[in-house]
Design a protein that fits this description.
two-stranded antiparallel sheet, 16 helices, alpha+beta, 13% strand
Amino acid sequence: MPLDNSFAELPPAFHTRLMPTPLPAPYFVAASARAAALVGLDPAMLAQDDFVATFTGNHVPPRAKPLAAVYSGHQFGVWAGQLGDGRAILLGQLAGTQGPMELQLKGAGKTPYSRMGDGRAVLRSSIREFLCSEAMAALGIPTTRALVVTGSGQGIFRETVESAAVVTRMAPSFVRFGSFEHWSSRDKPEELRILADYVIATFYPELSGAPNPYQALLQEVTRRTAHMIAHWQAVGFMHGVMNTDNMSILGLTLDYGPFGFMEAFDAQHICNHTDQQGRYSYANQPEVGHWNCYALAQALLALIGSVEEAQDALALYQPAFASKIDELLRAKLGLTTAQEDDAQLFDAMFTLMNDSHVDFTQFFRKLGTLQAGDPAAGAPAAGDPAQDSPLRDMFYVREDFNAWAARYRARLRAEASVDAQRKLAMDRVNPKYVLRNYLAQVAIEKAQNKDFSEVARLLAVLEHPFDEQPHNEHYAALPPDWASHLEVSCSS
């Protein structure tokens, strides 16, 4: 497995070269065939002993230059100072079908940046990150990927003693907003420039010829971040800990910890039990994304050269987010044209959903069954209201839903929307299957008893989120009563 490591070529101040800390008796838990294909690996080989040893950190391949990167950041809006890879070690890059991909072992032992941590990850959190990384990719959302999970019987203490694990995640780069904040906060303009030039040359070469490449970098990262968060909002995904050290310079969903997919819709829902103030609620995510881009702009200001140019770059965020979320919502509602009153239609829909706490995923999937009525087929002008029952019954006040549905029908008929065609299009963008917390919990509990079959089954379902999968219908069910007690926090 020939590895390169372009990040290791940066000066020593950017990272610490070190070896992973081995784990006793490592074993294979799960692998993603789709992620393996990106770097030309046979997924069947990942379960072999030598690969398990490599992806646990017990064996380092020739030419690898393992390292932990330094960065800083704002956590929950407060400057936290130096952070860094406290439990992740970058092995190196593999050539991939879409360019080189870095392989990073999360849970591979202590580093100089571990602070008070043990440098380890537990099986529970590793499975959650593995499943969600691949689920998000299947949903078409920009994300890091997860190649393989390995485990060990070594005990790791969190709230209780749990089994250690390592998840190998992949991305073109793991450089974060906080990587730039680190050098800016230390008034190190040369290191800041080295990092920016590396990122531009390696990942944004088209920006090198811009009149101000550093402003162009901020513009592109701002645009990508706005689009990524619009994708989150459109599927009801909540990151849970949008600190600047968890924001990718490539606009990828990074660092899956206390994440969650919205179930009973509540715009103020907080998926992270640690987030007592609700900074990272679903409703706040778009504005926090903007705030994080502002923090990046401050870090890059010395390179950009003027506040005005930085502000011009940041000004792209709101229109980029608004344009993308409107595009995604129109697709989710099966609309093919943009109209001036779209925002009112969307706002009224979310208000209804919020008032009745309808299940986010099920609502949009069932919305495709609403019939506008096809005049060419002789359908009545108002459609067939009886077909609305699966939708109407999700709402406490049926009359309010009826009023919104009438407005939505009128909008569809103005486009001469054809029911069957629209449903097919809506089913391609409204997933039936998402990684609900209770589904992950079932897989985790079995895995903790050395039964990894449910991890593999759940992954197979989540890789096809838009398909009907009749034999897997139960994976689309509402959460059971016991799931209401599930909580995730920063230790997840």
